[in-house]
Write a structure and sequence with these properties.
Layout lengths: L2 H4 L8 E5 L5 E8 L5 H10 L10 H11 L5 E8 L2 E11 L9 E9 L8 H15 L5 E2 L7 H9 L23
Length: 181
């Protein structure tokens, strides 16, 4: 069985309810992202400060998305509530020769609509990521968070993530265009 075949969570783990303040609860579905979700994902990245200095265009996002979905175990996921994409995350499951050959998982680009933060959507997504990683036989699920994001750190602590080691980053310059600009 390939690693891509091992990735999967029972349907029950993909649907849950969230708190809606004084409005009761609402159903949230977590599913793989598709082409039709890219505009919503880009909007979430912009709202949550993940778009970067030079956000990608819709065409660039489509090209990147099509390239990454060909990777055997790199998936973009969306949380959908009342027909709208309200959150997203990316999950990469990496084959590994260490740790008895068990893969590891990396969560990236977690973005929750600011109007829905604190209502359980992020928690559902991270539980989903944990379930996906466990179903793939991973020995760990990891993520990184900017040191200034104290509320995000408290959120991940509450979910059982452990602060582990140090992260190191080498910022790389943007590539130059072929004409030298």
């Amino acid at each position: 069985t390939s690693q891509a075949d091992r990735i999967g969570v029972p349907a029950a783990a993909r649907r849950a309810t969230t708190r809606e303040g004084g409005l009761g609860t609402a159903v949230v579905d977590i599913r793989r992202a598709g082409d039709g979700d890219l505009a919503a994902i880009l909007a979430l990245y912009a709202e949550c400060g993940l778009a970067g200095e030079h956000p990608v265009s819709a065409a660039e996002a489509r090209d990147i998305f099509h390239r990454t979905v060909r990777y055997p175990s790199y998936r973009f996921w969306v949380a959908v509530q009342s027909g709208a994409v309200v959150a997203t995350y990316a999950l990469l499951i990496v084959d590994n020769m260490a740790h008895s050959g068990r893969p590891f998982a990396i969560v990236e680009q977690v973005a929750v609509d600011p109007r829905r933060q604190g209502r359980g959507v992020g928690q559902l997504m991270m539980r989903h990521a944990m379930d996906e990683a466990q179903a793939a036989g991973c020995y760990k699920l990891m993520l990184s968070s900017h040191v200034a994001r104290a509320s995000a750190h408290a959120f991940y602590d509450k979910l059982g993530f452990e602060r582990h080691g140090y992260g190191f980053v080498v910022p790389l310059p943007e590539p130059r265009s072929p004409d030298g600009d």
